[in-house]
Amino acid sequence: MRIAGLVGEEPYSYKDPATGQWGGFWLTMTRNLAMELGVEVVVVESSWPNLPADLQASKIDLCYLSPTAQRGMFVDFANSLFYDTYAIVARKGFAPKGWAELDVPEALVAVDIGSAREETARRFAGNAAITGFKTREEAMQAIHSGRADCFVATVFLALAVLKKNPQLGELIVPTPHLRAAVCPGMPYDDDRRFRGVVDAWGEDTRGIGQIRAWIVTGLGKFGVAPSDLPLDVSY
Fold this sequence. Notes:
This protein is an alpha/beta fold. Helix content is 33%, strand content 23%. It has helices at residues 25-37, 51-56, 99-102, 116-124, 136-144, 155-164, 193-207, 210-220, and strands at residues 2-6, 14-15, 22-23, 42-46, 63-65, 76-77, 82-90, 108-112, 129-133, 150-154, 170-172, 179-186. The strands form three sheets. Strands 5, 6, 7, 8, 9, 10, 11 and 12 form an eight-stranded mixed β-sheet that branches. A two-stranded parallel ribbon has the order 1-4. The longest helix has 15 residues, at 193-207. The two termini are 26 Å apart.
């Protein structure tokens, strides 16, 4: 089973530079699915901008995405495994309460190109001065150097970033809270049997609380405890 591996997407997906081993709770989930099916996992390195082409070319069998109508043209989405909540990593002294406060020309917003996070920023803060970066690390450098006020992220991602570098800024969940379903995505096939298998596995693991357990364990590897999550954020 070929899964898309995204570098630098802690806690979802990451590659250890020292060992070359892949980790993250997306990988943990996929390895469990592969074990159930009696197959091996092969990680194919990809990126947000390249995912659509990799799926269309059938270079990968599985990835994890938030569904949109446009993506549905080339991605066969299984049912959602969990929900993400969009947030921002804000430099110290920059504390917008809502998306409307970001949707102004004075706000300097950093995004990573091709991600659902970029789509959200352009949709809900389109009037801001948005700068796209190839990687999340480049965007974080922009905040650190004062070239950006914030980076549009998700709560899980933001918490992992700030545990690693608390001086970078703070986590803010702007209102209204925006949630995105995270679904297994795969190329379309003739009978969609693989999608049915993934749906059955997802219902089983989610129903017994395993999805939540994998997320908690994955966050814990970066020092993020369940108590660190904002009280009004659910997944």
